[in-house]
Amino acid sequence: MSWTVETLIQGYPGKSKQQGGLGFSTVALARGPGGRIAVLDTGRSGARRLILDRLKAVGVAAEAVTDVLVTHLHYDHVENWPMFRNALIHVPGAELDYALRQPEGAPLWPEFCLRALAENPRMRRLAEGETGVPGITCFEAPGHSPYHLVFVLEGAARTIFSADVAKNRAELATGVADMTMDAGVHRASIARLNAVWREKPGTVLLPGHDVALRIGADGQPEAMEARVLEIQAWFGASLDDVTRFDVTERGAS
């Protein structure tokens, strides 16, 4: 039941005072037993072309994806489930019920996307335990959202896809979350995530808004890759006049 996991879109730990949440979340691809191919979270709708390009680069067509596993139902993690027309869409069932009860226009919940998902025959409801996908289990870690799931994929390198339980290294290290429905519940979820992460040496953790992490020699989370994010802007009178911004720590003032 061995899975290999690779990042399609690297999560980014930031937001804008002028634009609100950027929604630059992690999207990953997992290949497993029996030819199963899973996408872990789907990103926001503005990432669709990029996702297709990244899938093509690794030799996978969207139509070949057999399973989509969604950690929680905020817009930047679920909006692109329709891209995967042949896949089973596995979502936290209790969270779907909760989201559908929210008033139209409620922040974070993409109501039209979720209504369509609820009516789709390929949707599968998840709770803590087995996912129905061999070699992948999940556990509940509420706080950021009411029924947030964490996926654990068994393989030569065990991988935990944790999304927004702890969105970045700072939240993992401190146990304090920036966006939470209940700080105490959320702190307990981060503690559980950290404990599961440390159960097996070499386990890789993919947070929702940061790079892939592992536990370093000092017992603290450390990055496994360099963060990459550039924004291009057109401020002048010509499309040839491009201003490029490095919005990683290397470009910080």
Notes on the protein architecture:
There is one protein chain. The protein has 253 residues and is α/β, with parallel strands linked by helices. It has one domain (4-226): Metallo-beta-lactamase, Chain A, CATH 3.60.15. Helix content is 21%, strand content 26%. It is built from six helices and 17 strands. Strands 1-4-5-6-7-8 form a six-stranded mixed β-sheet. The protein has a five-stranded mixed β-sheet with strand order 9-10-11-12-13, with helices on one face. A two-stranded antiparallel sheet has the order 2-3. The chain is globular. The termini are far apart.
Gist of the model:
By secondary structure, this protein is of the alpha/beta class. The chain contains six helices and 17 strands. The protein has a single domain (about 5-225), classed as Ribonuclease Z/Hydroxyacylglutathione hydrolase-like (Metallo-beta-lactamase, Chain A, 4-Layer Sandwich).
